[in-house]
Specification:
Layout lengths: L1 H54 L1 H12 L9 H18 L4 E2 L5 E2 L2 H19 L7
Antiparallel strand pairs: 1-2
Helix pairs in contact: 1-2, 1-3, 1-4
Length: about 140
């Protein structure tokens, strides 16, 4: 029994650095994936914002002002802003081709957003292939 425990502890001691390196590699992949996904989303948000500004310029200015200033003096009609955003998204669906749909079923219309989202999904697949603990 004593030999078995010694062998078990030796295996654990030898395997610990490998496990730590695997966890670190997974953490790096996750950070890279999150950064790519964030950049991809920003490209799509900018596109919807451009359309929203075109179809609802006053509401868009109010919303931008509220985001820039924590002490918002202007009352914003949030329901109208939500409806404006929905109209912008509907217009986008009718006027542009979907370039990529990611694993979460989010549609990407911009070339940059689609490219970044594909890369993020590729890293997610790599994490699954490596059986990263963050995915369990």
């Amino acid at each position: 029994m004593r030999h078995f425990l010694t062998l078990l502890l030796s295996c654990w001691w030898l395997g610990a650095p490998v496990m730590a390196a695997e966890v670190e590699a997974c953490r790096n992949l996750l950070e890279q994936r999150n950064a790519l996904a964030e950049q991809a989303m920003k490209a799509e948000i900018a596109l919807v914002r451009t359309i929203r500004e075109r179809i609802c310029p006053v509401l868009s200015q109010q919303a931008d002002g509220a985001n820039a200033n924590d002490r918002n003096e202007t009352t914003i009609d949030y329901q109208a802003l939500i409806e404006c955003r929905q109209k912008a998204e509907e217009l986008l669906l009718r006027s542009r081709r979907v370039l990529y749909v990611n694993r979460q079923q989010f549609r990407f219309y911009t070339v940059a957003g689609a490219k970044l989202a594909r890369q993020a999904d590729g890293l997610m697949q790599q994490m699954q292939d490596q059986e990263c603990p963050q995915l369990r």
